[in-house]
Amino acid sequence: MVTSAALLHPVRMRVVQALLAGDGLTTHELHERLPDIPIATLYRHVAYLVTHGLLAVVGEQQVRGVSEKTYRVVEGLANPSPEELRGLSPEELLTTFTMFTSGVIRDFGTYVSAGEHDLVEDRVSFAQADFWATASEVDEFFDTVMGALRALMGNEQGQGRRRRVLTTVLLPRPDTENAQ
């Protein structure tokens, strides 16, 4: 059973964050990325995440007579479609959102840890804005944003361009959900 509680441990959260960045890693590769975590602890938490349905074994090979498994975050949890989201329980939705936000945290941590950075020069931004809008106004807003984003996504690498990531979260405010 997938539960958000399975992620509420700092080691398990770091394992998931590391796995969100790639196509799959073995426990030894995870240990290379997370060297401060003892290998026995890593094995225990990876097994826990597999048991709770958050990680899947995507490969297995024999290395020096021992079976070495490659793990990946289960399909659909890291980047679910709207149809997949509709079928999730509240607990599964919280787990999925936790995994999504942990990926954003990982990316920001990687940026900050990379050494020299200038948030203004790099155009780093994170903010929250409250607004009132009907469903059709939100749809129009997203159409406008997606049109502008598609134009940028068509750019080729080079010419002074830097790869960037746009992350969005849009939620209704529970205290104003039914307001007129």
Topology:
Layout: H1 10-20, E1 25-26, H2 27-33, H3 39-51, E2 55-63, E3 66-73, H4 82-86, H5 90-113, H6 135-153
Antiparallel strand pairs: 1-3, 2-3
Description:
The structure is a single chain. The model has no long low-confidence stretch (mean pLDDT 84). 44% of the residues lie in helices and 11% in strands. The chain has helices at residues 10-20, 27-33, 39-51, 82-86, 90-113, 135-153, and strands at 25-26, 55-63, 66-73. It has 180 residues and is mainly α. Strands 1-3-2 form a three-stranded antiparallel beta sheet.
Keywords:
single chain, 180 residues, mainly alpha, three-stranded antiparallel beta sheet, 6 helices, 44% helix, 11% strand, globular
Quick structural gist:
The chain is mainly α.
Strands across the major sheet, in which order? 1-3-2
Rg from alpha-carbon coordinates: 20 Å
pLDDT < 50 stretches? none
Mean pLDDT: 84
Q: Percent of residues in beta strands?
A: 5-15%
User: Describe the biggest sheet?
Assistant: 3 strands, antiparallel
Total helical segments: 6
